[in-house]
Write a structure and sequence with these properties.
Layout: E1 2-8, H1 9-24, E2 34-35, E3 45-46, E4 48-52, H2 56-62, E5 83-85, H3 94-99, H4 103-111, H5 117-130, E6 136-144, H6 148-164, E7 170-176, H7 186-200, E8 203-208, H8 209-222
Parallel strand pairs: 1-4, 1-6, 4-5, 6-7, 7-8
Antiparallel strand pairs: 2-3
Amino acid sequence: MSTVFVHIGQAGCQLAQVLWPILANEKLGSPDIFCLPGPLHAPRCPRAVLVDAEPKVIEAALSRKSSSALDSEKDFAFDPSSAVWTQSGRGGNFALGYIGEGVACEAFDMMQGSPGLVVRAMECMRRQAEDCHGAHLGSVLTHSLGGGTGSGLGCRLAEEIRDQYPRSPLLAMSILPLTSGENPAQCYNAMLAMATLQEVTDGVLLYENDRLLATAGEVSRLS
């Protein structure tokens, strides 16, 4: 059985860059969260989909250099075919993240043979789920709730995944924004996102950015 991770927005994709090196060094059993390597000596690929409205963070994840060059069993690389992005951003707005450029623009993109971000992300999700060993055990979303992509697009994808895989558990790992954050709409984004997540997911692991920052500062001080 296998679990698929979906990393959404800047924070979600940055979490992927920190999380997967740790998982790659663990002796994992079931569920299997890595795809089997293809060619000889090829690194494993995480069962992960990277989604963002801007390319910068995803490009950094895809260009990552392995820190385990001497141990091929711990080496991994993200699959470029499971990464999707646009160039427009979502302006720190839940509605823009959820709807994107609007239904009319999505329809125009489909007519031009260029599917929208949600359609491409769900196609990546479908391939990962179908490639699971045995059965698709469930999905894990990682995102922040303060920005437009993490909150709006994250909720949109959560709804789409729930519709496509109604019997598979869906877990959200969500990060609350800093109280001193720069986005004036972050509280509204977080509130709207939480209202959706509690309806469509089976569980939400909620992390407080303020508390994480305070813990990191304390650890740094003690070391």
